[in-house]
Amino acid sequence: MSKVEVHGYAIISDDDRIADASGHTPEALRNDADWAYFQAGLDSSALTVLGRLGHEANPSPRGRLRMILSSSSPGLERRPDGWWWNPEKLPWDQAIRTMLPNGGRVAVPGGRRVFDLFLGIGYDTFHLSRAEGVRVPGGVALFSACDQGRGAEALLAERGLRPGSRLILDPAVPVSLVIWRK
Ligand SMILES: NC(=O)c1ccc[n+]([C@@H]2O[C@H](COP(=O)([O-])OP(=O)(O)OC[C@H]3O[C@@H](n4cnc5c(N)ncnc54)[C@H](OP(=O)(O)O)[C@@H]3O)[C@@H](O)[C@H]2O)c1
Q1: How confident is the model at residue 135, as a pLDDT?
Q2: How far apart are the first and last CA of the chain?
Q3: Does 119 sit in the ligand 1 pocket, CB within 6 Å?
Q4: What is the pLDDT of residues 92-115, one digit of tens each?
Q5: Looking at the chain, which terminus has fewer C-beta neighbours within 10 angstroms, N or C?
Q6: Does 182 contact ligand 1 (Cβ within 6 A)?
Q7: 51 CA distance to ligand 1 centroid (A)?
Q8: Does 4-50+102-181 carry CATH code 3.40.430.10?
Q9: 33 pLDDT exceeds 60?
Q10: 71 lines ligand 1 (CB under 6 A)
Q11: 20 Cα to the center of ligand 1, angstroms
């Protein structure tokens, strides 16, 4: 199979949170410049892999190809709104070979369990945006290990990714972006 490239995308707070304590994205983690960057990333990807809740909350208006993680899937199953995948029933290598037999770029926008899963599978690139100065106490962590005091950056570095320079997506907040690459 040709190369599959896995790209993670997240916007986090200073305390490495992707959502608030109720599981919703707080306004402070919504940013137009970051959204535009993320959408461009999805446009240049062959497939978006996301959790069921994120899928249900954000339908894909442009009809991009989606793979939705859910325990309700018997393995890998085509439904009208995309491919439904259960990683406990079918390993990633087999699932992605069915989805993208010629390889391609895969975007992974979470949520937390999906980000965790791909820490194990391996990110080739992680686009890590941060709303600087924002804290979301008690919120949902980017990776579950962040709840044990591990920083998002340390976890990416441990998996062999290295940071690029800090770019500013929106100077008003500011929202910064660091692209981590293998
Ligand atoms: N700041 C950011 O960058 C960012 C990124 C992503 C999400 N978010 C926010 O976080 C919240 C949603 O994230 P979330 O973590 O609550 O939900 P989610 O990942 O979108 O969906 C969770 C569901 O996905 C399925 N799933 C996930 N991992 C699985 C696995 N390994 N095996 C089988 N099924 C799996 C399960 O569905 P079943 O129940 O059907 O089994 C699970 O209930 C939203 O508010 C969203 O906007 C923010």
Answers
A1: 98
A2: 20
A3: no
A4: 999 999 999 999 999 999 999 999
A5: N
A6: no
A7: 4
A8: yes
A9: yes
A10: yes
A11: 13
Q: Which of 114, 146, 176, 177 to mutate to test the pocket of ligand 1 (most atoms within 8 A of CB)?
A: 114
Q: What gap in Å lies between CA 50 and CA 66, rounded to an integer?
A: 8
Show the tokens assigned to 7: 């790209």
In order of 9, 34, 58, 108, the CA distances from 38 in angstroms are 7, 6, 13, 11
In the block, tokens 């899937």 appear at 73
Mean pLDDT, rounded, for 146-169 = 97
pLDDT at 62: 82
The alpha carbon torsion through 166, 7, 141, 135 (nearest 10 deg) reads 30
Q: Nearest 5°: phi and psi at 86?
A: -115, 105
Query: 2: which DSSP letter?
Result: P
CA dihedral 71→87→155→51, nearest 10 degrees, is -40
Token pair belonging to 79 = 């439904």
The residue whose CA has the least distance to atom 34 of ligand 1 is: 70
Half-sphere exposure of 68 (CA within 13 A, CB side): 23
